[in-house]
Specification:
InterPro entries: P-loop_NTPase (IPR027417). The chain is built from 2 helices and no strands. With 73 residues, the protein is an all-alpha fold.
Length: 73
């Protein structure tokens, strides 16, 4: 092997004071937090005007809904 050649890969100069491992971990944690917040906000927006009536038959729910909307049967 010829040792006189320059290396193909240059080492990263760490004199700038940036630790790339810490920056990568911080970016990953930040991305997870942002995605979690967006998913929570999206799920809350979908459930705004919904409610659940448990224990009623379909005809009972229809009667309540038609009375609430003002429809006559």
């Amino acid at each position: 092997m010829d040792m006189d050649k320059e290396p193909i890969i240059e080492p990263i100069d760490l004199s700038t004071g940036i630790e790339f491992t810490c920056a990568t971990i911080a970016a990953a944690v930040f991305a997870v937090i942002i995605v979690s917040v967006l998913l929570i906000l999206r799920s809350r927006r979908k459930q705004k005007n919904t409610f659940l009536i448990v224990g009623l038959s379909d005809s009972g729910k229809t009667l309540i809904f038609s009375t609430w909307v003002g429809l006559t049967m």
